[in-house]
Each structure stands twice: as C-alpha cells, then as structure tokens.
Structures
1.
Amino acid sequence: MRRITHVTIAFALLACAAASTVSAKVTSRLITVGQDFRIAGKTVSAGTYRFAYDDAKNELTVSDRKTKEVIARAEARAEKSSKGTFPMLLLEGESAPLSFAGLSFDGKQVIKTSAAASLGQ
C-alpha cells in the first residue's frame, strides 16, 4: 500500500511539472512612426508598425500593421525603467534615418536593442 502511495505521488508531481511549462510572454504595441528609422541594419519607412518583444527569445520584431509581414528582427533586452517616464519610442542620431534606441511598454519596461543588432552586425 505504501509503495502505491509513493508511485501515485510521483506521478502527480510529474503531471504538475509537465503542466506548468514556461510560457513566453510576448508584449506588443502598435506605434506610428513619423519618420524613417533604422533597426537591425534595415531602414524602415515612416508608418504604423507592430513592435513585439518576446522575453523568452530576447527578440524585438517590427512587423507591418496591415500585412503582418516581418520588417526587422533585432536582439533586445528588457530593463526596468529608471525614475521618471521613458518615451514610448526612442530614436537617436544626428542625421536621417535615425537609429532605433529603445521602446517603452506602459512606462515600466524598456526594450533596448544591443549595439551589434542595431548596427546590423
């Protein structure tokens, strides 16, 4: 009887472990960008795009709002935003097209591409 109880408990624990798989959280937002910008070595023209961040892959994806076609993918990382608010979309540079520097979701999570991914290397 004791052996059956141990086997039953072992199967129950196994079932619980299998049921609680790690799920990736993909956060996305539609953003209208008023000027051309560069991300992952690609120039993206002004328009409305879906910016999606996959925290399991550490990847930022930019896709067309209407066609759902992926325009660019870049390695990225999430950080807690520091004091104050972070702009929804941050572009930087001295000449057009500006380079993608960061993205904020609800002012809490800041997504930044790595330097190599931003330069297309």
2.
Amino acid sequence: MQYVMSLSLIRASKLLKKAMEEKRKEETYALWLVRYPSYTEDTFETFEEFYEKLHPPKIDIDTRSKDEIMSEILGREVG
C-alpha cells in the first residue's frame, strides 16, 4: 500500500485501471467457464471471442469541426 501511495497520480490511476481490467477479465472468464459445458462444436467460441463480444473496445469519436482539427495540426488559433 505504501508503494501505491508513493506513486504519482498518473501512475496510480494507470495501475488502478489495469487492476480493474484484470478483475473484469477474471469475472468474464468465470462466466465463460460456466457456459463451457453447454458449447457444441457449432456454438463454441474461444474466451477471446466471448470477451470481445461482452466488452467491445471503446472508440473515441472526435466531435470537433474540421477547422478546429486543422488548426491544431497546423498550430494555429481558431478564430
């Protein structure tokens, strides 16, 4: 615990995020194991496929205008 308290806020938040991801994987794996006996040759899915189906990757959408994005790229102020 002392180690975590000595970390910078950014590192501590990354460590916490990683721990939460691992916890979610463990819980999803337990759910996959419960379903495992009911799979047939036609319905079988790997844990990775099952995990991706339950937790699809999040995509961040940039809602800025084209002018704002170009200004950032070119290093200019939007006016």
3.
Amino acid sequence: MVAMSEKVTVKLRRQTWEVKPGKTARDAIKELQLNPQSYLIVRNGELVTDDTILEPGDEIELIAAISGGAAHALS
C-alpha cells in the first residue's frame, strides 16, 4: 500500500482524486477520463505545462479553460 505522501492529489472543483507520481500531468488527467486540453494545471500553487512530471506529495488543481464569444461581437 502506498502512503498518502507518496501520492499526487488532483482537485477539480469539489472532486478530489489520488494518482501515482512519476507520470506527466497530461497522462494523469487522461487517467481520470478528462480532456487535458480543457484545463489549466496548477501544481503546488504554480501554473505548469501538461508535460510536467508529477512528484510524490504534489497537489494539483485543475482549472477549466473557458473560451468563447466571437471577434465580431467586439466591434
């Protein structure tokens, strides 16, 4: 059994998961059946890229990347 400190905690809104360290943030997000392109990834309070390798004890927060609107609406 793996100790809590040897896991990575992933949070999205009110949901929390634990994943094993040593994989990329992208792979961890895919493992949770989420689309990595839909989220900004914050590790231990700092924005990181999806190819960042997750370390034991990391706390990951996923923030939905929101886009929309039309360019002509601004003119």
4.
Amino acid sequence: MPGDTDIEGLALPFIIGMAVGLALGRTALDSILLGVVVGLACFGLLAWGRQQLIP
C-alpha cells in the first residue's frame, strides 16, 4: 500500500499530465477520449521521472 507522501507526490504529475493531454486532445486530435489517453501517458512519464529524481 503506498504511503501518504507517495500519493501526494503523484498529484502534481497527474494534474499536469491530464491538463496537457486534454489540451492536446481537444485542439490537435479533436477528441477528448484521445486526450485522456495522452494525458494518462503523460502522467505515467511524469510520475516515472519524479520517482527517478526523488526516490
């Protein structure tokens, strides 16, 4: 079970990743569903990068 600090640390990558994904989905891809998929991919990359920088 992840601790409180792990969950709090993933909040910012989730917000940024989903914001970027939804923005790209609505403007460039003309699909909110694709934006959600792109946002989740961005979240995964940002979360992975955060875990590498701050163990």
